[in-house]
Automatic annotation (TrEMBL):
GO molecular function, one term: GTP binding
Any one GO cellular component localisation term in the record: mitochondrion
Name the UniProt record assigns to this protein: Putative nitric-oxide synthase (NADPH)
SUPFAM superfamilies in the cross-refs: P-loop containing nucleoside triphosphate hydrolases
A Pfam family it matches: MMR_HSR1
Domain G positions: 322-392
NOA1/YqeH-like C-terminal domain sequence ranges: 438-536
CDD domains membership: YqeH
Taxonomic superkingdom: Eukaryota
InterPro entries assigned to the protein according to its UniProt record, in alphabetical order: GTP-bd, Mito_lipid_metab_GTPase, NOA1/YqeH-like_C, P-loop_NTPase
Protein species of origin: Lupinus albus (White lupine)
Length: 592
């Protein structure tokens, strides 16, 4: 036997280490762990009495990962969320975006960090003071408590605690608090949202609960955000199930509620009657043949929410399913959050962000509809013909329309052209009259340019990615694709108001005011949808833009801040400050 007193300090440490190993081995054998892995250490061979027999790798049981995380590594990469009762009971779904949650890998979708649990009484005695210093009315009385805090039981303490916030995935947390996604490449692991497989088959079913399709469309990008594929599928289902119902068979006919959001972006001078007539006409042309009801709302200003809620409750009935469907960034989640806030229901806040694709999976929203009716928020449909799907996050911010649209009007002649940043160009090739009025309706952060058609190629080579942004940088011009032309023959009967719109999906539109006929050439990147339609806003600006570059709002702000910065430097160096030379605001990499 070794005598501890006679051992050197280094040998005593080793003996202590071996004792701990022996205790861990005995503990592991007592709980009968099934895993058996040989364990050996070369430096233990000189101590035969304390050598360990083949044992388990007990360090595996002390994993730093939360319990059950090993099982979560095999979560399906899916966008089906929790619309299915069976799936929602077995898998945890993020209440903000609908993705399956896991805590094993930050490089996979749905990663989250479970917050540490706090003692419910950790703040209970923080407000107590000594008797001599206690005021006439104690803090507990001011809080409305008759019993002193130290005498409260567990049930009473829970009444004074604030409701816990639901745990969301790391992506939703980043979007809510920082307005951006740390690693956008993680989302690429998810498959595209298959509307036909998930929602489509439920709508096509002739039996089951009543279905209401909440078709959400962006007022500022109506044709680009209109879900044409969904409209055709729902229209076909309505026709088929209506025919079956007339024959006495089971026929569950879906109800379509067309919701046009963000109407606060449309100028208030536009007549609501004219706007509604225009919406119904465009909806028919885009593929929906029967609309149960139409609502024009603003989630930001709570316009039209009362009528929409009443209509949805009546159509859904006590047990119906309501599906919110729309393109990416059309405003579905913001609309549902506004509805929940309006009705005062206890619902989980859906993640909102001014970037496309915020919702990743189907989210069943509780607390908005009464009784057993269910409301589902679905992932935004990807429309590849929208130009925003090709842009980076920073470029999307410039294209995004966040305030009421303001017109920018040009009076031009044949042989002249207008650029909207480096994304779209309008050429006046031929016309029967001398003058034509072109009004640009787009984000104020996009610069414009008016010049001659003969100089358009030089503009593309010298200024795209520089003065005309987005795209940000010359390399991005090539990444966006081929620059192609599309021809339109238009006509009008008045110069006083616009007659025709030439709209690009995800960007904006040109409103054309003319008397007579004209041939227009529209240039943009291949695959971007460009349509001619009846004019939405017939009015134009009272003042006209001049030839050359029209500085965008963001460049104008940068100009002012840069000028002030140079003036401060000039004063600091005691240099003449009557004239300050400005450096270029636009570089190859973006706006400096």
């Amino acid at each position: 036997m070794f005598s501890v007193r006679n051992l050197a300090p280094s040998k005593f440490k080793l003996l202590r280490y071996l004792s701990l190993l022996s205790e861990c081995r005995n503990h592991a054998q007592s709980i009968l762990l099934p895993i058996s892995i040989p364990y050996s250490k070369p430096h233990l061979q000189s101590f035969p009495k304390f050598s360990l027999q083949p044992s388990i790798n007990f360090f595996r049981t002390f994993s730093s990962q939360p319990g059950g995380s090993l099982l979560k590594q095999n979560l399906p990469l899916s966008r089906e969320g929790n619309y299915d009762e069976g799936t929602s009971l077995s898998l945890s779904v993020c209440p903000g975006c609908g993705v399956y949650m896991q805590d094993s890998s930050p490089k996979r979708p749905g990663y989250f960090i479970k917050p540490s649990e706090k003692d419910p009484n950790y703040r209970l005695h923080a407000h107590l003071e000594h008797g001599a210093q206690e005021p006439e009315f104690s803090n507990s009385v001011k809080m409305g408590l008759v019993v002193e805090p130290e005498k409260l039981n567990a049930a009473d303490v829970n009444l004074t605690r604030k409701p816990e916030k639901p745990v969301v995935c790391a992506r939703c947390h980043s979007l809510r608090h920082y307005g951006q996604v740390k690693d956008p490449t993680v989302e690429n692991l998810l498959p595209d949202f298959d509307f036909d497989h998930t929602v489509g088959r439920k709508l096509a079913s002739t039996s089951g609960t009543r279905s209401v399709v909440l078709m959400v469309v962006d007022a500022a990008d109506f044709d680009g955000s209109f879900p044409r594929k969904v409209a055709k599928l729902v229209s076909k289902t309505i026709d088929d199930n209506s025919a079956a119902w007339k024959q006495g068979k089971s026929g569950n006919v879906p109800r379509v509620v067309l919701v046009v959001t963000k109407i606060d972006l449309i100028p208030s001078s536009l007549s609501p009657t004219r706007f509604e007539h225009w919406i119904r006409q465009r909806a028919r042309e885009d593929g929906i043949n029967k609309i149960t009801s139409l609502h024009m709302v603003s989630s930001l200003r709570d316009w039209g929410l009362k009528n929409l809620v009443d209509d949805i409750v009546e159509l859904a009935g006590p047990r119906g399913n309501v599906w919110a469907v729309g393109a990416q960034n059309a405003g579905k989640s913001t609309l549902i959050n506004s509805l929940g806030k309006y009705v005062g229901g206890k619902m989980s806040h859906l993640t909102e962000a001014p970037v496309p694709g915020t919702t990743l999976g189907i989210v069943r929203v509780e607390g908005v509809l009464p009784t057993q009716a269910k409301l589902f928020d679905t992932p935004g449909l990807l429309h590849p013909y929208q130009i925003t799907t090709r842009l980076t996050r920073e470029e999307q911010k410039l294209v995004h329309i966040s305030k009421e649209l303001k017109p920018r009007t040009y009076r031009i002649k044949a042989g002249q052209s207008i650029h909207i940043a480096g994304l779209m160009r309008l050429d006046i090739e031929e016309m029967s009259s001398d003058t034509i009025y072109v009004t640009v309706w787009a984000s104020p952060y996009l610069p414009l340019h008016m010049g001659k058609v003969e100089n358009a190629c030089k503009m593309f080579e010298d200024h795209f990615g520089r003065q005309l942004q987005p795209p940000m940088g010359v390399k991005r011009v090539q990444e966006l694709g081929k620059w192609v032309r599309k021809e339109f023959n238009v006509s009008g009967n008045s110069w006083e108001s616009s007659s025709v719109d030439i709209a690009a999906a995800g960007l904006g539109w040109f409103a054309i005011g003319l008397k007579g006929d004209a041939v227009l050439g529209v240039w943009t990147y291949e695959g971007v949808d460009v349509v001619a339609r009846n004019c939405l806003i017939p009015y134009r600006s009272n003042t006209f833009e001049v030839a050359g570059f029209t500085v965008s709002k963001i460049v104008s702000q940068s100009d002012q801040s840069l000028n002030k910065s140079h003036q401060r430097k000039a004063k600091a160096s005691k240099a003449p400050s009557s004239f300050v030379e400005l450096s270029p605001l636009i570089s190859d990499g973006g706006i400096s």
